[in-house]
Design brief:
This protein is mainly alpha-helical and 347 residues long. The protein has one domain. It has 15 helices and no strands. Helix 3 packs across helix 14, helix 4 packs across helix 14 and helix 7 crosses helix 10. The longest helix has 33 residues. It is globular. 44% of the residues are buried.
Amino acid sequence: MPDPNPPELIAGTVKSVRRWLRENPMASSALAIGIAGVAVLVIARATGADAVGRAFDRFDAPWVALVAGASLLTYPAYALAYRSIAGIHGHAPMALPLVARVVVAGFGPFSLSGGFGIDQQALHALHEDERSARVRVVALGVLEWAVLAPMTCVVAIVLLAQGADILPSLLWPWAIAVPLGFGFGLWASAPGRIDRMSNVGGKRRDWLAQALEGVGVLHELIRRPRRYLVAWLGTALYWAGDIGAFYGGLRVFGLEPGAGKVIIAYATGYAATRRSLPLGGAGVTEVLMTYSLYWVRLPLAPSLAAVLVYRVFNLAVIAAPALIAHRQLEPLLAPASGLRARGDTGD
C-alpha cells in the first residue's frame, strides 16, 4: 500500500496533535507558557540580554501589588458582562458560580480555539441552540471593542492634536478606522439586511449572517443602556482593571508614561483580545505589547520586562485556576466537545 503523500501526512499529523492537545489541557497550558517564554527570549536576544538585565535593577516591588490586584479585578468584572450577554434574547440567567467557572476557564491558556470557543460550548450546552450560542459569543467580543475602541479613538485624536511624540502611523488608524468601522458595522448589522442574507441560503452566507447578528446585538445594547447597564459596566471595569495591571507592570520598572500612551500601547498590543486568541494569545501578545510600548517611545528593554510581569499574572498565574474550572465544567462541555472532536474543529 503506497504511503500517503506529504500534504496528507502533514494534515494527519496536525490533526492528531490538535486532538491530543484538546484532550490534555495541562499540556496545552505548558505549551502556551513555553511559546510565551520563547517570544520573550527572542525579543530579549534582539534587545540585548544586558539591557534587559539592567532593567531589573530598577525593580520596584510594591507596584507588583497593583498588577496582582488589578488582574484579580478583571475576572468578576468580566463575569458581570458575560452573564448579561448570555441572558440576551430571552435566555434564562446563568447561575453565578457557573458564570465564574466559564469565565475563568475561558481565560486559561489551554484552549486551541480561545476562550470564546469554551464560551460557545458552554452556551450551546446550556440552551441547546448552537446558532444563538455563536451569536452571543460574537456579541461578547463586539461589546469588548465597543468600550475599548472608542476610548482609544478619543485618546488618539487628543494625542494627534497635541503633537505627542508617538508614531503618527500608530495614532491615525485609531482616529479614523474606529468610527468608520463602527458605522459600517451598525449599518451592515441592521435586522433587515441580516434577514435578507439569511434567506439567500448557503453555509458561508449563514455564518456571515450569524456574525452580523452578533454585531447587531450592539443595536440593542445602545438602545437600552439601562437594561444592559451591567454589561457596559462590567466590560468597562474589566478594561480598567487590565489596563491598571498593565500600568502597574510599567511602574515596576520605573516607566512613567502618561495615561494616553498607556492606553494606545495597550489597545494596539491587544489588536485581538486574549480571550479571542488561541492559547491565551501566547507569543502574539508578548511581541505586540512590547513593541507597541516601543512605538510610543518607551525604551525596549524595560518595556519587555514590564510586559513579562504583566503576562505572568494574566497568563501563567491563571493557568492553574483555569484548569480546575475547566475540569469542573467537563460534564457540561463533554457533549459539545465530542461533536467538535469528530469534526476536528474548535477546542
